[in-house]
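Practice problem: predict the structure.
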Amino acid sequence: MTGVFIGTDAFAAGVLTAMMGTSEAPTLVITRPDSAKGRGRQLSPPPVALAAAELGVEFIQPEDIGAAPVLAAIDAIDPPALALCAYGAIIKDPLLSARPILNLHPSLLPRWRGAAPIERALMAGDDETGVSIIQLVEALDAGPVAAQESFSVDSEEDFASLSARLIDLGSRMLVSALIEAREGSLSFADQPTEGLTYAERIEAGDRLLATNGEAEHAARLVRALFPHIGARLELPSGDVVGVREASAQEEGPAEGVFEEHDGHLLVGFASGALRVTRLTPPGAREMASADWLRGRPDLSAS
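Answer:
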């Protein structure tokens, strides 16, 4: 255990956990400072800090990852390469050029460079995804590739299930790349120039299911944002519900019409209909749409 792992979010925490027990389990974890979250805006540690504490691994949360004390802590360990996954902040010199930084990115680069590659792949209906291990460079996810592996995306895959598969594959690939770096056999190839797309961060507007679109796209959006962010649907009343589980079908009510069908909520889209089976009403817990529909004889005016 003579390595350094840099990461922040829940996906990175999963990778860190999977690396424990391997020859490349880190001695030091570097993550972001605590941040304000929730309605109360209370400071909360990032998932990687929580994972490191539970795993018993030393971790630090510097305001500036390039500060002299951080560089000294890394130099004291002296790893041949640093492991990075979803750190969420720009890394610059002198750390960037001090030694190779191997970045685990959950996409088949150059497709889906950026902040939300898993969500965007699911939203786009990609039938294939995978993991790229690249050397971190100043440009966004543009570094040369040390390793890349792909697999098929299941038709009903959601963020939770796809993330778990990517963590399993990615952690094994990252460990292998770190071993090669330690042995001096790691090599890189430039990314292709064709097929470049960007996975923009998920914004509030991305979450809304617009009935003037395709029901199939809406169903993909629900799966892409489950369970961590959540899709939203505006009712005829103007209230907004969270949509937790849904599927598309060809036949249904007219665009914008909400009705009960076979015990579930059915919403008409410009193309097809969305069958909502689980939702979260405003200020309430998640429930089956069948439970929510009880006592709503005039759904169109709900």
